[in-house]
Design goal:
mainly alpha, elongated, 4 helices, 6% strand, 68% helix, 219 residues
Length: 219
């Protein structure tokens, strides 16, 4: 694990970058690997409640009860209610004898059905005249968007490969230097420890000679 100070607009901060192509501490020390796995498992353990920084849930469609009811239906996985097909039929008056109001309601329904069929005929005529070209244009736009997204994905993959290759080359290049410095540091620490042990032994020898001198002087 290596780190360095980096100046930012908000002040100095510490950035840590791992050396996966060089560090092999986990392979050399099984105990360290076990401790790392325990720490990871502890972090992945589900916590009670949400984090304080998590915003509260958003209430959707607060001004539209119909959309709220539809959202609640989808969340509860309830099926859609069946369509009312009675408005597409032409029933006559059900009462016998039929009143003028009953016939007027049936006539209004017939006018509505006639207008609906006229609109359907108009839409079909528009679709027949212009639908094929609009569909071709839509397909062309979708194909262009798909090609752009594929190219963007390939560029990102290539960029990722280049970044990983550069990191590997850099870490491999400086790995020998890091190993040499680590070995030298170990040797220096060992030399310092040997010097300290020699100093302790020398102090003990000086103390012994001092006591011997005192004994000889007393004689």
């Amino acid at each position: 694990m290596s780190g360095g100070n980096v100046e930012t607009t908000q002040g100095p901060s510490m950035i840590f970058d791992s050396l996966p192509y060089y560090d092999n501490d986990l392979e050399r020390d099984p105990g360290l690997k076990d401790r790392a796995e325990r720490l990871i498992a502890r972090e992945l353990k589900p916590q009670q409640g949400l984090h304080p920084r998590v915003p509260p849930p958003i209430s959707l469609f607060t001004n539209n009860p119909l959309l709220q009811a539809e959202l609640a239906r989808i969340e509860s996985r309830k099926p859609l209610p069946q369509l009312d097909t009675s408005r597409y039929q032409l029933p006559g008056p059900t009462s016998s004898p039929a009143t003028e109001q009953d016939w007027q309601a049936a006539l209004n329904n017939a006018h509505a059905q006639l207008e609906h069929q006229r609109l359907r005929h108009t839409n079909l005529a528009l679709l027949q005249n212009y639908g094929s070209n609009v569909w071709r244009i839509h397909n062309y736009q979708m194909e262009a968007t798909a090609k752009y997204l594929d190219k963007t994905l390939e560029d990102l993959k290539q960029l990722t490969i280049e970044v990983n290759r550069d990191r590997k080359n850099f870490q491999t290049r400086v790995g020998t230097q890091l190993t040499t410095l680590e070995t030298r540091w170990t040797e220096l620490i060992s030399s310092v420890l040997q010097i300290e042990m020699a100093n302790v032994a020398l102090e003990a020898e000086i103390d012994r000679l001092g006591k011997r001198e005192v004994e000889l002087a007393s004689l």
